[in-house]
Amino acid sequence: MRRTRDDILQEIAREETRLSELDRRRDEARARIASLKSDLDTAPGSESLHLHPPHASAKVPQTPAEKVGLFRSLFRGRTDIFPTRFVSKRTGKSGYSPACSNKWEAGLCVLRTGGKCGECPNQAFVPVGDREILDHLQGRHVMGVYPLLSDETCWFVAADFDKSSWKDDIAAFRETCDSLGVPAVIERSRSGNGAHAWFFFESPVSANTARRLGCCLITETMSRRHELSMDSYDRLFPNQDTMPRGGFGNLIALPLQYEPRQEGNSVFVDARLEPYEDQWAFLAAVPRIEASVAEEIAREATRTGKVTGVRFADAIESDEFAEPWARPPSGRRRPMRIAEPIAQKVRAVLSQRLFVEKKGLPSSVLSELKRLGAFQNPEFYKKQKMRLSTALTPRVIACVEDLPPFLALPRGCAADAERVIADYGGTLLIDDQRSP
Description:
Layout: H1 5-42, H2 46-49, H3 64-74, E1 83-87, E2 94-98, H4 130-137, E3 144-145, E4 153-161, H5 166-180, E5 185-188, E6 195-206, H6 207-224, E7 236-237, E8 252-253, H7 258-261, H8 279-284, H9 291-303, E9 311-312, E10 345-350, E11 354-357, H10 363-372, E12 374-376, H11 378-385, E13 396-398, E14 401-402, E15 406-409, H12 414-423, E16 427-432
Parallel strand pairs: 9-12, 10-16
Antiparallel strand pairs: 1-2, 3-8, 4-6, 4-7, 5-6, 10-11, 11-15, 12-13, 14-15
Helix pairs in contact: 5-6, 6-9, 10-12
């Protein structure tokens, strides 16, 4: 029977009444949350809870459904699409592509002809559900996550350490996080030859804020361990502040997949890199960082020049200094405070490059010198503003080489290197070996 105009108007009125009731209940819930947070700030032990409060529910999951629920609450990314791992039968190389009902179907899948999923007219992406997570945990497929959401926020940020020195790198990184009170969750990677450091948020934060938090921690770690390479800035997830047109952002493999777990990989580890005995009990107690705390750390890192600690190219205005008053004069970064003593006389040779002898220089000073020969890549920011892929464009360009006895810098860094050494009570003795 066809509805009359009066019937439709009455139904609209009923739905509007329901919306009003929902709005009222939501406002009451928000007021209750604000009251509880106020009580939390004055509760005993609130000092240790302010920066990284434990999750509201520390109940250890027992059933598969409870484990999937906890897993999804932590490793949250896009839910409309997710990548799965594949191994090429022809080359034996592995990779990831979005789970799609039309994947590899003749006449439908552009991967068969070298195309990109983001440009495919026959997209039939599979959404994330409990079954997909369970299949990952039980070994039926290897699943990843796209952390950058459509509104350019994220629920977590992760750092990847995969160099041969990853054990020392992750130890120094963990020490930095502990010293700053930022809770890092360390996962031994799927291959066993690297690690991921995860940071989870109570609510979504902008990707720009999350990345500045991650970059700040990397910058601080470089002061402890100068061997940590500057391409670490390009191994953050998400890697972009904005969503590239026709893309999904970069992906990271999800942990606890069945097969590598049998070999002690893709699991969470303690300071000795030993797996926690009960992975689910550990995850249930993982602290989440409040959005306001992440924003404050990112803001302070920007103000003090510790997001990357390297200068900005003059050709661009970085989003990290969107506020003009926060930008250092003439784009110069603020010098870092270094407390360690250095050698009174530091030898250097000026030839095709400036070779500074590392003997007698603490890691923090070597890190300061390395930053003299690095700058933020303007092409990265141009592409990001145009919403183009930055996958193959480094954020930081470093014209520095760390040799066993020397640090090799561009010759134009000689005056700045003298200033850095002088700032900390030393003298740089430069032997000019340039050809006449």
